[in-house]
Records
---
Amino acid sequence: MDEHDIFSLNERFEQATTEEILRWTWQTFGDKVATSSSFQTQSVPLLHLIAQVCPQMVVIFLDTGFHFSETLAFRDELQARYQLNIKVIYPAIDKNQLFRQYGEGLYRQDPDLCCYINKVEPMKRALHGLTAWISGVRRDQTSHRQGLRILEPQADGVLRIHPMLNWTKKELWNYINRYQLPAHPLFAKGYPSIGCAPCSRPVFAGEDERAGRWADKDKTECGLHL
Ligand code: SF4
């Protein structure tokens, strides 16, 4: 696929539905494509669509060792409900080793390094041998994401595919309500966006939905989507 193909497909996919993009992706790449999920409330529409269009697709879950127990339980609930083909990937060093090597506060002192060890490097391993990776990011989530395209070739040769890029928060919620999709157990406790426990807090009235992520830092992305 050259630059011209990517350009034409991006033009076409701006008008396409998420189902159409998923169907094209599965037909084009088959078992050389995987998606990843953080198993939060906002992740459910994409997983629901994948379960209908391409249920065999691998869903990568990065188990950083810092997730809320509710996230792990929600992941298991969704796996049972939608028969998802989940593959759990762990960091190269476990939590004990991490603490011995860097102390227990690495997420505070150097969150970029912590995310690299626990998310970015494991994801690189998970993508080894794959041609494409589907991510559920949306343009309305962060300023960085506003500039993304639906198909984004990466330097490592893996094609990033963003089939939900044009969804708005309102459309996401309409979909969740229409199909009565389940919510992460902590959603009702003020977590519209949730990641590792030490780096997620509930949001307050009037705050952005991602305001609880790395709330006391400039950081807005873990590095997977940069
Ligand atoms: S989100 Fe926080 S705890 Fe999780 S890997 Fe990143 S810095 Fe570490």
---
Amino acid sequence: MLRCSICVLDERFSKIELIDGRYICRECLIFIKYPPDYDKMLREVEEVLSREGNNYDCILGLSGGKDSCVALKILVERFRVKPLAVTVDTGFIDEVAMDNCREITDRLGVDWKIVKENFIDIYREAFERFKSPCRKCSRRILSILRLEAVKRGLNVIVSGHELPFGHSAIRLMKGNVKLVRILAPFKMRESEKEKILRELGWIKPELPGYTTNCLVIGPAIVNFYNMHGYNFEIERIAALVRHGLLERKKALKLIEKPKIDEKLIKELEKRGLKLEKFINDLRDSLLCDDDQDN
Ligand SMILES: [Zn+2]
């Protein structure tokens, strides 16, 4: 199977062409032809983020994962605005990620609010239909954050997503609310983020898949993989490589079928997500004792 030599997409996901002896996908060719203007993105973000002098300037969606925690630090220390950090508790956030939210808001002196709303219907449906839960989940989180902003008369929501919306870090939502992907202009590599996180006292949860907060995504990837033969995160991971945010070698590992342990399945069941129907398929991917080296 042909695979792009720049990102990790193979011919199932993109047209792969041979150019000067290298296989390159369509997405990477477009990216090379029309590269993002990171300085322009930064100017746009600077324009939107300003200290108004009243209570809060914006809402920051804090998931406890690495990106939103780095985003909070940049927001406070680089842009010097006053956010309210809001964590939408889906019922399936790792406890370590919750501790990270507490620790980091505390260290940065940021007010923190938790909005509890159980997302089990989205996750259950994803398992039943062998789909990715990510789009529906993030859409619901955004709508909760937007309502929180509107309720407080705020019109900016900041998220820790690192990929821009096409060529901009900002998207306009319903009701004139602006969604700012604050990390997009910074083009920050994993190692830089890790350094910032270490200084913040952030602890990495042990979770399968490319996540540092969500309990569902690893088993959901395995379930999807068993049916479709690939990882539903491949396009996002390929984009991270294309943008120079993730090493290709690491990405090739991340698009493999993750390994999950019995403990995680038990934890999901404890939280109400019964996986008996899928358990044998999922169990194929359980870690063996001699395989727990990472
Ligand atoms: Zn590519």
---
Amino acid sequence: MPALLEVTGLRSGYGRNEVLHGVDLRVPPGAAVALLGSNGAGKTTLLKTIAGLVPAREGHVLLRGTPVERRPANARARAGLCLIPEGRGIFRRLTVRENLTMQVGRRHLNGTLEKATARFPRLGERMNQLAGTLSGGEQQMLALARALVTDPDVVLADELSVGLSPVIVDVIFEALAGLRAEGKSLLLVEQYVERAIGIADYVYILQKGEIVFVGEPSQCASGVVFARYLGASA
Ligand SMILES: Nc1ncnc2c1ncn2[C@@H]1O[C@H](COP(=O)(O)OP(=O)(O)OP(=O)(O)O)[C@@H](O)[C@H]1O
Ligand SMILES: [Mg+2]
């Protein structure tokens, strides 16, 4: 099956420091891909390069087979790519409602808010609250809800669950599963390796800017893979 999102030979970095040294990765339509790797491996850089926040130096980012690596981030967003960045990317001085509605036209407003509050009732109760005063978990729900209202084809999620309580992590992962059920594709960077693998169809491990493992979750079950590449005993 052709990939919805495909990355080939991707190189990028900052200044003289090349971080990604030729990355290949495929996200088939409707599939969830877990991207794992230790701190500093280049996971965030890969998501940002896909989204257009860090320029690609070499290689391609293909969306439905079309190269988009020279297009600006907003054009990629319109083409169906949605990055939920590390640190949430919400506007703290705007209300929950403003955060949710700023990216959609007036015509779609009602449907948008309903969709977001159906998924996250807690946000529905806090529409007029400033985003910066939400709890950490609620802020993460808002970040995810903002991604939902734009109706993307591919969601790139960078450590959504960081710093959240287990109950809220459950809510976030239920929402991710809901996105998949809607047929959206996911590329997930997660510190909770087991949870990410639980939702994933494919697992990639990035080490020092190179993909060192590609497989299905069942191939990770023995724990050997993690011990070898992530230094974990899981
Ligand atoms: N804006 C930047 N300017 C310069 N170097 C950067 C920048 N962002 C990241 N780096 C460097 O690029 C490398 C990869 O960082 P990146 O954030 O992609 O890793 P990561 O896999 O997401 O790590 P973590 O698990 O800690 O989030 C690191 O050595 C980091 O110091
Ligand atoms: Mg990161």
---
Amino acid sequence: METPDADNVVSSTDGDKDKLDDNAVLSSTPFEFEASRPSVFWASGDNPYENTRQVLSHIDLSPSKSKRVLLKPNVGRNAQLGTGVTTHPEVVAAAIDVFREAGADVAVGESPITGVAALEAFETGGITAVAKERKCPLIDMDVRRYVTVDIPDGVAIKSLKVCREVAEYDIVVSIPVMKTHMHTGVTLSVKNMKGCLWRRSKVDLHMLPELSGCDEKPLDIAIADMSSVLRPHLSIIDGTVGMEGLGPSAGKPKALGVVLAGVDAFATDSLACSMMGISGRDIPHLRVGSERGYGVIALDSIEAYPRNWKDVQDPFAPPPDELSIEFSGYTVLDIQSCSACQSTLLMFLKKYGKQLRDGVPDDKEIVIAIGKGHEKLPDGTLCVGNCTARHKGCGYFVSGCPPVASEILSAFNI
Ligand code: SF4
């Protein structure tokens, strides 16, 4: 295989298969672990590179020798280092080095949220620099055509459009940032695999109809469904600087200075949740996935090493149930939006919220709607994003998918 420089996109021809004959993506992990009592390793300190090397030193990576390893950090957005939005480049750098030392052929790939270009996000977040230094290929996984992967056990979804590289590489390593998430409670190594879904098909998981007889949100069930075919072979969670509150993009950075690693993605996520002061059982996609047997989340069945993980526990502020609580003077109606619209709106409210509020009489309520699930909206609603287009007659409308934050202000003529 041709190994491009870090600043080149892999652009080999796509082959002719658009559908996998078998669920090759679901190959079981080559790394040894005890399924009934999985180990999760963690390290803390102010050097993310060393923390990552240390946690990986506990795992026998020799099965990756001569294999193609795809590192999948969370670089779904254009965000600067230190904001807690994207994976720390030094964590990625250490993973590249350690897998190479084990004899693997390593690349780093991402398919960001709608409206973000992967290579730009790699550059902004500092990953291009560490990859270039190591001549490690960076892959925009949206360039090539997807493969369709069936989900035999799927409840909310029966198939996925998956970035082709995920099916081609032998080993996929999920390297998320430790963050709370407005829609899914947290986003860790299981949820991070959603960034392996091709282009806009990620949005489909936010647009699913309610499931009859099921109390969970369809999005949570869909992520559990996804984890039946897209479970990482190894997880490395970057808690160097995570995010609390309005995650995944508009919360506050939270410096924890930890890195975790484990073969069981659910166990690794569950221990990370506990460090964040959250029970894995309160995260629906983790609970549902573990009930189906995809991994272990019960803390008393997880071998944390070292055992004194509570010493680094530092509760993260949860995401608010209602955005209106965070932004007084606004009522935000959010039904079946996706992260892209939500991020745009949060950015807008953070940057221009006061300006907009000051430009409108105090007694006028500002109602903003995002998402496609609204039956009826009050007169005067500011409808944001193409999903609300059918309600544009009832007030103001900002088109785009996702829309541009600054255009929300001009819709109000301010
Ligand atoms: S309009 Fe907004 S909520 Fe709808 S799909 Fe686009 S980004 Fe997502």
